[in-house]
Specification:
CATH superfamily: Metallo-dependent phosphatases
Strand content: 15-25%
Helix content: 25-40%
Radius of gyration: 18 Å
Largest sheet: 6 strands, mixed
Strand order of the largest sheet: 4-3-2-1-11-12
CATH class: Alpha Beta
Shape: globular
Distance between the termini: 24 Å
CATH topology: Purple Acid Phosphatase, chain A, domain 2
CATH architecture: 4-Layer Sandwich
Amino acid sequence: MTTYFISDLHLQASHPELSNGFYRFIEETITDATSLYILGDFFDAWIGDDEDDIFYLSVINKLKSYTDNGLKIYFMHGNRDFLIGKAFAEKTGVTLLNDPTDIQIAGKKIRLMHGDSLCTTDIDYMQFRTQVRNPQWQQHILSLPLEQRRVMAAQLRTQSQSMNSNKAEDIMDVNPTDVTAQFEENGAQSTKNDTQSDIDILLHGHTHRPACHPVKSSNKERIVLGDWGESMYYARADQTTVTLLKHTI
């Protein structure tokens, strides 16, 4: 039983090498996988489950073929694909996860997050996150015509790139206090009916800063997944270990 974790692929029609790399990852790299967890920003933008662009429909069909063949795929929303809903899950066969979600693997309790909720030093982003995660705001956006949503998504990407270029690097990283709190508090929704206990590993993406960070004075650690470009970052968990890996696309 082997489980894999990925995040921040940012799949988009203008960069087919990313989606092709993802398909090869499934079909050639993780042939021993029983489960795959996608921890957000799988797409560079998602404007709604009624998306009819041929590129996105092809990705949906690929995901469905993988789940039909027995691969369990779990999907957590990111800051780029927060509009993915139940219709997407039904079309692809994936299981949607809450952020955060706790799971038990390799004898350890692992907390899965996208990671953006830990970047509390970035006040502007946190205000934006609160807005776009509001169900009423989402309902309004999804009521708009597809073309209007495409224009809005492009504008948001441009705005985000402009704002981030003027921010200090540490502002866009996780807040250490919030990370520490994750190891001290309970209450995330678990995928199993286990008793709540302190987590051993915090695993997330979002920051595009792949690394393993030991937690001081403990045997716990924070594993950060990386974004996909020329290389792909992923974590592999078997019955004994959880390892961060890098592979060229």
